[in-house]
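Figure 3 (text version): structure tokens given as input.
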């Protein structure tokens, strides 16, 4: 049976899992894991692929990536191939290190982002690598400690996660901490296995829709159907990565502002007006949701809603 082609939609989140062949270790030492993190950070910046969360386990990895200017497949191929070459040379082995293709599930960010972040970051606890949240906070090979501010990785896109909890960073970290503590108490794993359409109609007798489930996608029925339609029809994504850049260039030109002014905290009137119009155009022309705009601009959702309203009048 032929493999289903990967779906690589610009702007969307991808939950990526790569496992060692036959369940074998892909890291033998902490030095191996640190080198993997360094490689991942360099590639994140080189390919414009934001890494929102991660967990490195002895025989597999979990990553939460946002498709940026390069395909996720480009990022993953360079990441896994680079690590395999290093690992084989260091331990004098040959052959495949990773099992088949990595698994990539495209996700509905609005509905599943926080669940995915918790699911990924609790992997070391579920797998017995660490025993508690206190240990997880100190574990350098999962993003939990970095999201809490206990550790630092300049390339980690923590804002994509934290902006969903509160506008101020300190409040957001505290809210995230409480959120994952509640999840730790239940430890139900959320059942994130892809095929959101199948789960959304669980119990339905409509076999035609039941068969529309697709393990490459995680989200509500409407989200899954739309992604399937685009994949089947070959329709272009209504939110291509270049749309953000096109709107950005137009705003910089029309308002005579720099990116530093646009993304900074200055209250100069032209910069404030530019931000408001920017948010409005991202919503109306680029087709981005309020949540996506909030993450890109590092603003709260309520603040973005007000910006869009004001931007419409400019």
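Below: residues designed for each position.
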């Amino acid at each position: 049976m032929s493999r289903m082609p990967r779906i690589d939609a610009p702007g969307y989140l991808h939950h990526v899992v790569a496992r060692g062949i036959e369940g074998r270790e892909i890291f033998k030492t902490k030095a191996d894991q640190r080198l993997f993190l360094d490689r991942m950070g360099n590639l994140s910046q080189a390919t414009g692929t934001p890494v929102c969360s991660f967990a490195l386990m002895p025989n597999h990895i979990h990553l939460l990536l946002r498709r940026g200017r390069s395909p996720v497949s480009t990022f993953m191929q360079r990441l896994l191939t680079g690590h395999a070459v290093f690992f084989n040379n260091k331990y004098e082995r040959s052959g495949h290190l990773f099992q088949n293709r990595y698994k990539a599930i495209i996700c509905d960010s609005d509905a599943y982002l926080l669940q995915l972040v918790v699911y990924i970051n609790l992997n070391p606890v579920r797998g017995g690598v660490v025993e508690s949240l206190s240990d997880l906070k100190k574990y350098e090979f999962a993003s939990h400690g970095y999201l809490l501010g206990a550790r630092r990785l300049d390339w980690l896109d923590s804002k994509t996660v934290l902006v969903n909890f509160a506008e101020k960073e300190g409040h957001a970290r505290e809210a995230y901490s409480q959120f994952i503590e509640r999840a730790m108490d239940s430890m139900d794993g959320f059942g994130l296995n892809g095929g959101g359409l199948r789960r959304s109609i669980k119990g339905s007798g409509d076999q035609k829709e039941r068969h529309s489930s697709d393990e490459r996608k995680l989200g509500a029925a409407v989200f899954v159907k739309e992604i399937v339609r685009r994949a089947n029809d070959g329709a272009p994504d209504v939110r291509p990565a270049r749309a953000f850049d096109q709107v950005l260039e137009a705003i910089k030109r029309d308002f005579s502002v720099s990116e530093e002014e646009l993304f900074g905290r200055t209250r100069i009137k032209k910069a404030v007006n530019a931000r408001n119009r920017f948010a409005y155009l991202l919503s109306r022309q680029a087709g981005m949701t309020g949540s996506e705009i909030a993450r890109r601009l590092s603003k709260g959702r309520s603040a973005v809603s007000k910006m869009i309203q004001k931007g419409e009048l400019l």
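The chain has three domains: 13-186, 196-233, 241-312.
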